[in-house]
Design goal:
With about 240 residues, this protein is an alpha/beta fold. The chain has a single domain, classed as 3-Layer(aba) Sandwich (Rossmann fold), CATH 3.40.50. It is built from seven helices and seven strands, in the order βαβαβααβαβαββα. The strands form two sheets. The protein has a five-stranded parallel β-sheet, sandwiched between helices. It has a two-stranded antiparallel ribbon with strand order 6-7. α4 runs parallel beside α5 and α6 packs across α7. The relative contact order is 0.16.
């Protein structure tokens, strides 16, 4: 456990992946009550939606300072209607002419935070937590610190209520994310995330590696595996 609990209530953007699960643990160590929100946008790796409930059940039995509150799952089919991407369609992962990978879903995080802010308004929550990172990311512009700082201002103005957007992984590498997981919940939390979180873009769930399930070849798996190796090889 890290730090004293704050009486503020938080909403975690919780996909079922490693990063968002780490953020959920981070929030539970800091805030009095933490709710979660997920999005079904037709993602190719929709197995992550099943992992969400397994992770929440596992989190619920660990000793947090804060309480795990309600979960909310929203249907966001509109993202598929805006155009194809490797995250929603059976196409090979590649780089686009604009220099971004075709796993980038334009507007996704902007929309997710906007919907989260609307739900937070309804439920009296004041902190929004997301697992975005500039240190280990795929070049997505909606994961940048400046993007999310600007979004925090816009959302607060838009609902006439001060909202705080927290991104605890923004400047952490994947190895440092694994280390944070261990610092928050020890071996039990590491094992929970290793087995029950899902990050593989292709949705492969039948191959368990030392770092977790996945195809082992997509960018998400390579990043997760590399971070695991760097963490376990770090002295102390």
């Amino acid at each position: 456990m890290m730090g004293a609990v704050q009486q503020r209530r938080a909403l975690v953007l919780f996909s079922g992946g490693q990063d968002s699960a780490t953020c959920l643990a981070w929030a539970l160590s800091r805030y009095a009550e933490v709710e979660t929100i997920g999005f079904d946008y037709g993602q190719r790796h929709r197995v992550e939606l099943d992992c969400r409930q397994q992770l929440r059940a596992g989190m619920a039995v660990l000793p947090w300072q804060g309480a795990l509150g309600q979960d909310h799952l929203l249907q966001v089919d509109v993202l598929r209607q805006l155009g194809a991407s490797a995250m929603t369609d059976e196409v090979a992962i590649s780089m686009q002419q604009d220099g971004l990978p075709n796993t980038f879903v334009p507007g996704r995080n902007l929309l997710f935070f906007t919907l989260a802010a609307a739900l937070a308004y309804r439920r009296g929550l004041t902190v929004l937590v997301g697992g975005m990172s500039e240190t280990d990311y795929s070049g997505y512009p909606d994961c940048r610190d400046n993007t999310l700082k600007a979004l925090q201002v816009a959302l607060s103005l838009g609902v006439e209520r001060p909202l705080v957007v927290e991104t605890p992984l923004m400047w952490r590498s994947k190895a440092e994310t694994w280390q944070l997981t261990h610092a928050l919940g020890g071996d039990a939390l590491v094992e929970l995330l290793r087995r029950d979180s899902h990050s593989c873009y292709l949705g492969v769930r039948d191959r368990l590696h030392d770092w977790g399930y996945g195809c082992g070849q997509c960018p998400a798996c390579e990043l997760r595996a590399q971070g695991w190796r760097e963490w376990v090889d770090t002295p102390g």
